[in-house]
Design brief:
Elements: H1 4-8, E1 11-14, E2 18-23, E3 53-54, E4 63-69, H2 72-83, E5 88-96, E6 103-107, E7 110-112, E8 120-122, E9 131-139, E10 143-150, H3 157-164, H4 178-182, E11 189-197, E12 204-208
Parallel strand pairs: 4-11
Antiparallel strand pairs: 1-2, 2-4, 3-4, 5-10, 5-11, 6-9, 7-8, 9-10, 11-12
Length: 214
């Protein structure tokens, strides 16, 4: 269990309505279903932050910006903003292989793979619309860093879309082949930017997480 001082090091933005943290990899955004003992973000809240409300989620293995609400009103406002795609998110990832193009878009419909939960799958009949833009940051011999821009917000969207593109995210135990899984000790996917309209004053807030995830 983390101390309050440790939790304070996660904070990247705070005001009367909202708090944004840099969630570490390996921690759930919300409590797991019993008897899941995996720690979640709420387990690390000090007493003065005990009433924080979860607005959106990151996969347990994904690190980066997680936005929390301090009031029910701000929680309702921001939850609707995420639901209506009125927020803008940027992720960084490191993927296997080489990309010939510097940027592109992948659009493949997704649904839950019920027989292999929590995995998702591509389904052109029953799948829900899903779109991701990508832009290469740096190409190395057998891997590259990339900025990912999810237009939609499906579960595991970035992980599955990069897999379908032929370049799984390193450390992805659900979608990558064994060499890409074992190349690193964690999933190299990080929520690096979040842009939204503030619930109290309607001003645009630009959150940029400068913490390294490598």
């Amino acid at each position: 269990m983390s101390s309050p001082n440790h939790f304070s090091q996660w904070i990247i933005y705070e005001d009367d309505c909202l708090l944004a943290i840099n969630k570490p990899s390996g921690i759930l955004s919300v409590p797991g279903k019993p008897p899941n003992p995996t720690p979640c973000v709420q387990d690390y809240f000090p007493s003065q932050h005990a009433g924080l409300l979860t607005i959106h989620r990151l996969d347990m293995d994904t690190s980066g910006i997680l936005l929390l609400a301090k009031t029910k009103a701000s929680h309702r406002f921001m939850s609707m903003a995420f639901q209506n795609r009125q927020t803008s998110k940027v992720y960084q990832a490191v993927c296997a292989g080489r990309l010939e193009q510097p940027a592109g878009t992948i659009q493949l419909p997704m649904r839950c793979d019920w027989a292999n939960r929590p995995r998702q799958c591509i389904d052109f009949v029953q799948g829900r619309y899903a779109q991701t833009r990508w832009q290469v940051i740096a190409q190395k011999e057998a891997q590259f860093s990339v900025a990912l821009f999810p237009i939609t917000g499906r579960s595991h969207q970035l992980r599955l879309h990069m897999k379908m593109l032929g370049h799984p995210i390193l450390g992805d135990t659900l979608y990558a082949d064994q060499p890409a899984q074992q190349a690193v000790s964690r999933l190299l996917l990080h929520a690096s930017e979040l842009h939204f309209e503030h619930p109290a004053n309607n001003q645009t807030v630009h959150l940029i997480n400068t913490a390294s995830f490598l």
